[in-house]
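New here. Your pick:
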Amino acid sequence: MIVNTSNAKHYRWGDDKCDGWFLLERHDLTVIQERVPPGGYEKRHYHQTSTQMFYILRGNAVMERGGVRYEMSEGDSIVIEPGVPHKFMNMGNTDVMFLVISTPESHGDRVEAE
């Protein structure tokens, strides 16, 4: 079955301004396509057991990972290991589209960080 943003399970986050689509939803692996509008961001947090990889499809973003900020653009990826605080931000003027690949699933594994 072909899965894309028109038929995937959808959710809203980030004060209902950001979108996520489950392209693959399993307990051992998830692939989510997300959209963050200009000025949008995710609260700083970490995951207890999940490793995540973020891959930028379109736009520019900033990933704060373990206290260090990384500028990301189309084709860039970054891995976030369990226990590492991180925050995804769109500081640009256009939407950022990206993939978040998590193993095991990250939903229910999130802990807010300062």
Q: What stands out?
A: The two ends are 41 Å apart (CA to CA). The mean pLDDT is 96. The chain is about 0% helix and 55% strand. Residues 39 and 91 are 5 Å apart (CA to CA).
